[in-house]
Design goal:
The chain is of the alpha+beta class and 130 residues long. It has five helices and five strands. Helix 1 crosses helix 2. The longest helix is centred in the C-terminal third of the chain and has 20 residues.
């Protein structure tokens, strides 16, 4: 489609832009409040327009993207990135959050080996008491 006058549903555009693996997941995310337009919740059937600014939350990541092109066809990731432009704030914020997650993971104690049979029994006993 790729013409600026064409209209596409939001869930279809999110799928084509490769934010979600399936259109059903995209629709569910929009319905579940994971996608906002100007701070407001929207419906999956909303038509995408050029220069709309969407806030998309996916797992630990939060994207703020501006629509630069409209398409209803899923294409390779390199082509799909041409459908939107991520804001500088969003890129910086995602980098900071990723770094925080990495540091938190490094602080967590890790065992060098898996628990043996005796240790597993103790773990199960402890969890049953909770």
């Amino acid at each position: 489609m790729s013409n600026s006058e064409d209209t596409v549903r939001l869930d279809k555009w999110l799928w084509a832009a490769r934010f979600f693996k399936t259109r059903a997941l995209a629709s569910e995310a929009v319905s579940g409040g994971k996608v906002h337009l100007a701070g407001n919740r929207i419906k999956p059937s909303r038509k995408v327009k050029l220069d709309d600014c969407y806030e998309i939350r996916r797992a630990y990541e939060r994207y703020e993207v501006i629509v630069t092109d409209v398409s209803d066809r899923r294409s390779p990731a390199s082509s799909a990135q041409n459908l939107y432009r991520e804001t500088e704030d969003s890129i910086e914020r995602r980098g900071v959050e990723a770094e925080k997650r990495k540091l938190a993971l490094m602080q967590r104690p890790r065992s060098s080996t898996r628990p043996d049979k005796k240790q597993r029994r103790k773990i199960r006993q402890f969890n049953e008491k909770l």
